[in-house]
Amino acid sequence: MLERLKEEGRVRSVGATHYSRSAFPQLMDVMQSGRVDFVQVPYNAADVAVADEVLPLAAELGLGVIVMVPLGSGRLVRNAPPEGDLRPLREFGVETWAQALLKFVLSDRRVTCAIPATSSPERARENARAGEPPFFGEEEREYVGQLVRSR
Ligand SMILES: NC(=O)c1ccc[n+]([C@@H]2O[C@H](COP(=O)([O-])OP(=O)(O)OC[C@H]3O[C@@H](n4cnc5c(N)ncnc54)[C@H](OP(=O)(O)O)[C@@H]3O)[C@@H](O)[C@H]2O)c1
Fold first, then answer.
1. Which partner for 136 in 18, 79, 140, 145 could form a disulfide, CB atoms 3.0-4.6 Å apart?
2. Nearest Cα to 126, choosing from 151, 91, 101, 107?
3. Exposed/middle/buried for 60, CB within 10 Å: 0-12, 13-18, 19+?
4. Residue 40 CB less than 6 A away from ligand 1
């Protein structure tokens, strides 16, 4: 049905998603079928399982990647490090821990976008600012990973 709607110009992109690492082999089969334009997968500074195979395959096939649970469903963002620990990230436009976590995933060039959920318009604006360059290099991404692991 989605393919028919796409042919009719009523749907632009078709995607597939799964939240569990155990389903990634099946998800990769779907990716290789040529029938999807996008995948939606979990990715955050505490869960980088997709980096092993799913993201490399998406890049190879030229598929879009939507990142779900970039804040660990709230768990990571609630467990914030002391404000001073964000100082090395300020030059990247990071003012809050949520922005550091979002910039972690958005700085991976294989990622197209992230979909953090929030019930607060002010937080939506705060989160959106993490989509602005400059983006992190490997050093800053490793630093954010360390901050998460130290919590
Ligand atoms: N395809 C799938 O299988 C699948 C599975 C799971 C989730 N998803 C999708 O992924 C998206 C995100 O999932 P999620 O809600 O589980 O995880 P998330 O985006 O990682 O975390 C959302 C939580 O973070 C908090 N938050 C957001 N911005 C914040 C900020 N700036 N400061 C402090 N706290 C902040 C929110 O609380 P407040 O509301 O209080 O701000 C909420 O509790 C959703 O759109 C969901 O539909 C898809």
1. 140
2. 101
3. exposed
4. yes
pTM flag (> 0.85): yes
Mutate-to-test residue for ligand 1 from 75, 96, 118, 148, highest number of ligand atoms within 8 A of CB: 118
Mean pLDDT, the chain, integer: 97
Q: Which domains does the chain have, with CATH numbers?
A: 14-149 (3.20.20.100)
- The answer to whether the beta carbons of residues 65 and 39 sit under 8 Å apart is yes
Please give the distance of CA 47 from its chain centroid, rounded to a whole number. Answer: 10
Mutate to test the pocket of ligand 1, among 75, 123, 126 (most ligand atoms within 8 A of CB): 123
pLDDT, tens digit, 9 for 90 and up, residues 108-131: 999 999 999 999 999 999 999 999
Sheet with strand 64-68: strands edge to edge: 15-17, 38-42, 64-68, 113-114
Place of tokens 């002391």: 82
Mean pLDDT of successive 10-residue segments in the chain (151 residues)?
97 97 97 98 97 97 98 96 97 98 98 98 98 97 96 85
Kindly report whether the peptide bond that precedes residue 70 is cis, defined as omega within 30 degrees of 0.
Answer: no
